[in-house]
Structure formats: structure tokens, C-alpha cells
């Protein structure tokens, strides 16, 4: 009788997994502004207010050029948005931020105003990983924020396993690594050994500002300022932490499950 009641209850609740990517993506919370956009034409000559308030030196101003914003270093505190009178930096509300090349995270100046979204793996790797991707997650000195949002993908609402993507306990059973944290000196050897244990061919995904560029710890002698100081990175997913939707979008783009446009859309 108990089993019958349980089955009846589950049938009444129906499917709780989101329809995305077949349906519209869930809305980002108000406090999460999504990707940022830089409009260099709005920059005022001599103004450096946004540079002064940035805690990770993610904003620079090359000589005789507008500001440049490195989303890999950005922790999305929005201090620059508040400080910028002419609104040269604005949130887009767009969850899509994953890129394949580190330099594509630099907006403004020579980098352009919008993100160049991640392209899929080459055909050979897509055939290997497209239907079944196993990842070993490595927390290389992280604060557990990126780790927590990665874990959310395994819950019933997201159900990462429906895409054939799973996290595994052993690197010897993995197709690649998903790295969080700034790679502390104490985790450097462990990360190298984990990378070496993954059979080739293999991929690496850096999740969060820390794993990309050191985050708020950038420049400290205790960290290596990101994963690509130790291992080659195939996908960069910025954020502090990235929203689970941003992480999922990046993974699906890497596997060729989403249509890939060269750039993110104009903000709403």
C-alpha cells in the first residue's frame, strides 16, 4: 500500500525537470544581471571611476582607447556599473557567457563590445563525448560557491544526466576535468596528478572567476591564478559563481547541442 501511495503521489506531481533547452530558459533572479556589455563610445575622456572601484583589476584602459573589461577576472559585484555615470558598462540579463578562448572574455577596446560565445568541439571529439561525457570535478581551493552551483545541475529540476553528462568519482573513469577555485599552491600537485590520470583524449572546463584568473585572490603568492597555469583549458565559464544555467549552456555548446552564434545578443 505504501508503494502504491508513493507512486500515486509522484504521478500527481508530474515532471519537474525544466524543458530547457527545448523550451525557454528559466529567468535569472533579479540580483543576477547576467553578462555585461561595454559601450566604449560612452566612455568619458579621462574618467577612470570604474577602474578605481574594481576589486580584481578586471577593468583597464589602454592608451588612447576606451575601457576594456575582462569577464574572466570579473566577480560581477556591479561596483563598476554604479560608478559609471555615462553607463558605459551595463548588465544584459543574458545567461550565456561561456567561451572557448581566454581572450574572448575581454570586452571593449580591441576585444569588441559583446561576447563571442563558445563553439563546439571538433567533429572527432563530439563523436566521442557528444552522447556520453564523464567529468571529474576538482575543487582547487574554491570557496564552495561554484561547486554548489555545479551540484545544482544534478538535482531533479535540472537533471544533467538527461544530456549524458555525469560527474564521476575517479579521474580514470572521466573524459575530462571541471575545475573550480584559483588553484592554490597546496592543490597544484593534486590537480596535475588528476589531469595525468584522465585517459586521452581529454578536456578541461574552468568554472568561475577563480578557476579562470584567480578571482578575488588574483596576484596572491598562495595561488596560481587559474587552471590554465597548470592544464590546457577548453572551455571558460565566467561568474562568481556562474549561475547553473550559465554552466549548463556552456557544456551544451561545447558538445554541439545548442546553435552557436558568433556573439551574444544585444541587451534587453
Q: How would you describe what is shown here?
A:
The chain has a domain at 123-254: Rossmann fold. The chain has a 5-stranded parallel sheet, sandwiched between helices. The protein has a 3-stranded antiparallel sheet with strand order 2-3-5, with no helix packed on it. The protein is built from 8 helices and 10 strands. The longest helix has 13 residues, at 185-197. β9 (203-207), α7 (209-213) and β10 (235-237) form a beta-alpha-beta unit. The chain is globular and about 75 Å long. With 268 residues, it is an alpha/beta fold. It has helices at 2-13, 49-53, 79-83, 123-129, 145-152, 185-197, 209-213, 244-254, and strands at residues 36-38, 59-60, 68-70, 89-91, 106-108, 133-139, 165-167, 176-180, 203-207, 235-237. Helix content is 25%, strand content 14%.
